């Protein structure tokens, strides 16, 4: 593998990122579920998984941390 082929591993999965991108647009869990064609429980699971990876206790803290890390943009 060449040095310029290196890509750092993303912290969030593609779906977790999609959920948080909608979350920062002030969408509700129900709206996110409808937009992504998944259940509300699955949305909550994605949020919970991301919060666990980040070591935070709430959605707001997760958003702040993801913005700080450059993983998410407003």
General description of the model:
It is a single chain. By secondary structure, this protein is mainly alpha-helical. 59% of the residues lie in helices and 0% in strands. It has helices spanning 14-23, 29-36, 40-54, 59-69. α2 crosses α3 and α3 packs across α4 (59-69). The chain starts with 13 loop residues before the first helix and ends in a 5-residue tail after the last helix. 16% of the residues are buried.
Task: Give me a quick take on this structure.
By secondary structure, the protein is mostly helical. The protein has one domain (12-69): Winged helix-like DNA-binding domain superfamily/Winged helix DNA-binding domain (Arc Repressor Mutant, subunit A), CATH 1.10.10.10. Helix content is 59%, strand content 0%.
Gyration radius, to the nearest Å? 13 Å
Query: How far apart, in Å, are the first and last alpha carbons?
Result: 34 Å
Domain count: 1
Q: What oligomeric state do these chains adopt?
A: single chain
> How many DSSP E strands?
0
InterPro entries: Sig_transdc_resp-reg_C-effctor, Tscrpt_reg_LuxR_C, WH-like_DNA-bd_sf
GO molecular function, one term: DNA binding
Keywords: DNA-binding, Transcription, Transcription regulation
Organism: Gracilibacillus orientalis
